[in-house]
């Protein structure tokens, strides 16, 4: 009698453990968390943004655009951002190895973040130039404004300026440079 109770108890325990294992496996297999998988990508494409008057505001070209719907941001490989095409000022061309676009929302304007070998160039009449080199640059295309807290090198026909950071009002050509205790703002003038 005791042997039957032990065998019956063992069978009931084994059955209960098997049912519990199957329930746990089925719960693990169903994952309802949303994933931020890309919903769109474009190769060798160009995106043009127009202002409310229909004037070209800026243009972004890249080897690859990838859009992620959950965060609503677009990553870019080897982007080229062109600013100031519709204005009387000379246009800016900004290139980098990587970048992303954060679209305009109720809380912020459109932001283009660029990093890895960033070069911003402006040419005037084919002779005068401004080159800005840094490792990362945040651009606000609607305002033709850019900033960085990374070391920056600015070259033009007059010389070179280095700084620990910068704010650039690209449409007016005004720059604010920043220093740190270890990295001062320096300018070297070249003879004509």
Look at the structure and give the mean pLDDT. Answer: 87
The gyration radius over C-alpha positions equals 28 Å
Low-confidence stretches: none
From the 3D structure, determine the CATH topology of the largest domain.
lipopolysaccharide transport protein A fold
CATH class of the largest domain: Mainly Beta
Number of DSSP-assigned strands? 14
CATH architecture of the largest domain: Sandwich
Question: Total domains, how many?
Answer: 2
CATH-defined superfamily of the largest domain: Lipopolysaccharide (LPS) transport protein A like domain
Structural class determined from secondary elements: mainly beta
As a percent range, the share of helical residues equals: 10-25%
Instruction: Please state roughly what percent of the residues sit in beta strands, choosing from under 5%, 5-15%, 15-25%, 25-35%, 35-45% or over 45%.
Output: over 45%
Number of helices in the DSSP assignment: 1
Alpha carbon gap, first and last residue = 111 Å
Strand arrangement, major sheet: 2-3-6-7-5-4
**Can you tell me the overall shape?**
elongated
Main sheet characteristics: 6 strands, antiparallel, barrel
Q: Topology as H/E string?
A: HEEEEEEEEEEEEEE
